[in-house]
Amino acid sequence: MQDAFDLVIFGGTGDLSRRKLLPALYAGLVAGRVNADTRIVLTSRSGLEGSTHEWLSGVFERNVPACGVEAASLKKFSRMVSVVELGLMEGGDDWVALKAMLSSEDRAIVHFLAVPPAVFTRTCELLGEYGLNGQNARVVLEKPLGHDLASAQAINEDVGRCFDESQTFRIDHYLGKEAVQNLLALRFSNIMFEELWSARTIDHIQITIAEDLGVEGRGGFYEGTGAMRDMVQNHLLQLLCLVAMEPPARLDGDSIRDEKLKVLKSLKNYTGEEIDRNVVRAQYSAGAMAGEAVGSYTEDLALEDASTTETFVALKTYIENWRWANVPFYLRTGKRLPDRFAEIVIQFKPIPHSPHKGWGKHINPNRFIIRLQPEDHLALRMMVKNHGSATEALKEVEMNLDIVGDSGARLGPYLRLILDAARGDQRLFVHRDEVEYAWRWVDNIVGHWEQSGAPLKMYQAGTWGPYEVHDLMVRDGRQWFHETSGRLGNG
């Protein structure tokens, strides 16, 4: 168990805190990963009605249904939590009181900004004004970081005047997932993976983040933002970087982030017709999910006019370096898709020659699958003889690389990242240069869409996107792969 620290969650009674952060911290306390002397301060514009214990009980009743909450543990956790009224735009006595709460001991202070990016700058200014940005302080910035390159640079500059880069932790919770940690361990502790991890043996790579929900409740943010800015710019490009980066000299924050930055700098920049050919954007129309009718994007947001905001993006890109020359990377993400999952599929090249005529077309290429959600899963798919068959038939089997029977409790991504921030460990966080290079690449595509005025494609809710997404793969002689509840499927 690491040392106790102070955690201030700005926007502490908001959606992210209630759904993700507080349940993660409670689970960490129960599992013995969070020191009971840690102080958790939740800021709120209006405070609470009733006691902190009662409020937390209601929060966990709605957000921790799977395991429940034990009364004694909840009481212990409640003693760690304080809720304070605090304005994020103006200083005053409430900030003086916050400073008094946090300055009694010399230990790490983590300021988690679970608030809109529009108030990042002023919140950091006030933290500096009241001396809450000392060497033991860290600031965690929740995405999205800006709306484009210019706004991201402005936020980075403003935050940088109050916190230096070693104190700044830009969070992407996908990087805290157990499967991502296992990906790094497998790549860099096993020589056989490193020898296979290149254009010599890999045919292509697919990265998918599929969501079955629409945009209900996120309309104020999502309209005008879209899937490219919301998901591709951060989550998908970060996963691409971890898959494609060169082995770092050391597994420290600077070394890992340097290698990810090299990947972003090597991404192929499309222009004009190349964007139209290799990037598909679309918006969901009315359809059906799990047998029930659902509305279109504009209906979900009660928009009177048509919208040009995409809810789906699929694209093909390349990394123009020695290791990945001519290996396509296919990325896709969307809302109102048939299933919810996130996975990376490394598909190897087919065998160059079949030595047995009976095998024919029944040989599937080897695949390494990294499933990130809804559960962590690592597996290798390969061909073996079909036991019991009178012929020389083959079948595909899965070699499960999950850790079975591990008695230690796994850290959820948010808990892992909060604890890393408290330790000052930046390995799983994003450097400002990564953010800015990712925005440069995305801005190029979005700028073309805005200038060309090309209409959005449409897809029915409950489907895998417009037919152009299928064509993106088929014209290359490939297919989308996904795995749902143990079943193979092609989108």
Q: What is Rg? A: 24 Å
Structural class: alpha/beta
Number of helices: 16
Shape: globular
Oligomeric state of the chains in view? single chain
Main sheet specs: 9 strands, mixed
Low-confidence stretches: 483-491
Alpha-carbon distance between the two ends? 44 Å
Question: What would your notes on this structure say?
Answer:
- The chain has 491 residues and is α/β, with parallel strands linked by helices.
- It is built from 16 helices and 19 strands.
- It has helices at 15-30, 52-63, 71-80, 93-102, 120-129, 149-160, 178-189, 191-196, 219-222, 226-244, 253-266, 273-278, 297-300, 413-423, 432-452, 467-474, and strands at residues 6-10, 39-44, 81-85, 109-113, 137-141, 168-170, 202-210, 279-285, 287-289, 292-294, 312-317, 329-334, 341-348, 367-373, 377-385, 394-400, 457-460, 482-484, 487-489.
- The strands form 4 sheets. A 9-stranded mixed β-sheet has the order 16-15-14-13-7-12-11-8-17, with helices on both faces.
Notable traits:
491 residues, alpha/beta, 9-stranded mixed sheet, 6-stranded parallel sheet, 19 strands, 36% helix, disordered C terminus
SSE topology:
Elements lengths: L5 E5 L4 H16 L8 E6 L7 H12 L7 H10 E5 L7 H10 L6 E5 L6 H10 L7 E5 L7 H12 L7 E3 L7 H12 L1 H6 L5 E9 L8 H4 L3 H19 L8 H14 L6 H6 E7 L1 E3 L2 E3 L2 H4 L11 E6 L11 E6 L6 E8 L18 E7 L3 E9 L8 E7 L12 H11 L8 H21 L4 E4 L6 H8 L7 E3 L2 E3 L2
Parallel strand pairs: 1-2, 1-4, 2-3, 4-5, 5-6, 7-12, 8-17
Antiparallel strand pairs: 7-13, 8-11, 9-10, 11-12, 13-14, 14-15, 15-16, 18-19
Helix pairs in contact: 1-2, 2-3, 6-15, 10-11, 10-15, 11-15
